[in-house]
Design goal:
The chain has 12 helices and 12 strands. It is α/β, with parallel strands linked by helices and 346 residues long. The longest helix is centred in the middle third of the chain and has 23 residues.
């Protein structure tokens, strides 16, 4: 029986090596493949990996907080799962719980490093090794004999593992890397949109997107820096390199928002709310269906003198366990900011 052990990153590789060394001691009839150890020098590496993926009966994915979204792990998981009932795939979690897994990894039955969990994994592997299956009695004996050494090694590797709730798998990107709202799935499906502190050109450049959402009954709330306060406009201007803003620069975007408002029926006008703040926030937000289990918050940083397309942002998702605490924090903060702001009077 062939076992394929997938890894990505140094910590994951240490875990994979430990499994490769330990598992045949418990089930002597299995062959464990680890790419770093079992591909000859000078071989066609990718071709050999493909062959092993094709011929493996069981796959173990060594997952840690720093590789849970690694493309190579996802590729190998997909390749192994293509064999459907002929192959089994099991994420082996170190420093993670099953709650930390996102699609598609969450569809697999994961194993933690708890003794009982690991034994169930070993039992499952032995159960599908029909031609060379060892007896339950022999399996228990060998597992008990070799568990202590394996557990000690796992605990040593665990010391290198980052806290998954401190490790955020959401990368920081420049604003220019973000698709327009009508091309971005969380925005397309959003029924409640809260925008705080963003450049009003977001609305000016995409009026049809916002109009279509309002027509479908979505709610749009905008919280903007007071465009009638010259001092605030001056502060905004200090932080950008493109130009010096004046009140006049806010006019076209405000006119567009006003047109959106006027296009609504009387009983629909509550779907569009505009409020103002008399300060310049250090972060800007797009909160998309914030209260939903599938909610998304885009957080944009506004460091001084960085052109708008290069401003960094990151994305938090309500259904990502590693994002959860920060998501709750930012969502609560955004709700308070909007509640305490002053309604805009046209």
């Amino acid at each position: 029986m062939n076992i394929f052990v997938s890894w990505s990153g140094e910590i994951s590789h240490s875990l994979a090596y430990a499994i490769k060394d330990w598992l045949p001691k418990v089930i002597p009839t299995v062959r464990v493949f680890l790419s770093s150890e079992d591909i000859d020098k000078g071989s066609r590496w990718f071709s050999d990996i493909g062959t092993q993926l094709e011929t493996s009966d069981f796959g173990i994915l060594c997952l840690t907080p720093d590789n849970v979204d690694a493309p190579w792990i996802l590729f190998e998981a997909g390749a192994l799962s293509k064999k459907s009932h002929e192959a089994r795939v099991c994420p082996f979690l170190l420093g993670l719980s099953p709650d930390h897994l996102q699609e598609p990894l969450r569809y697999f039955n994961a194993t933690t490093t708890e003794r009982n969990d690991v034994f169930q994994l070993v039992r499952s592997i032995n159960a599908i090794n029909r031609q060379k299956q060892i007896t339950e009695k022999a399996l228990i004996k060998l597992f008990d004999l070799h568990w202590a050494a394996f557990e000690e090694l796992i605990n040593e590797i665990r010391l290198l593992v980052p806290d998954p709730d401190q490790f955020s798998p959401c990368p920081v990107r420049a604003r220019g890397a973000l698709p327009l709202m009508h091309q971005w799935e969380p925005a397309i499906r959003a029924n409640d949109i809260l925008i705080i502190g963003q450049n009003l050109n977001l609305v000016l450049r995409q009026p049809q997107f916002f109009m279509s959402h309002l027509d479908k009954g979505a709610h749009l709330r905008l919280l903007i820096v007071n465009p009638r306060e010259d001092k605030l406009i001056e502060i905004l201007s200090r932080g950008v390199v493109e130009k010096q803003y004046t009140r006049r620069d806010f006019g076209p975007a405000l006119d567009t928002i006003h047109e959106l408002y006027n296009s609504l029926k009387v009983d629909e006008k509550s779907h569009l709310e505009v409020k103002i703040i008399d300060y310049v926030p250090t972060l800007s937000f797009q909160v998309l269906d914030g209260e939903s289990p599938k909610g998304t918050i885009l957080v944009e940083l506004t460091p001084n003198r960085i052109a708008v397309p290069n401003r960094p942002h990151f994305i938090l998702r309500a259904d990502n366990a590693a994002h959860r605490e920060w998501y709750k924090h930012f969502l609560s903060n955004c709700k308070v900011m909007f509640k305490e702001a002053v309604p805009w009077v046209w």
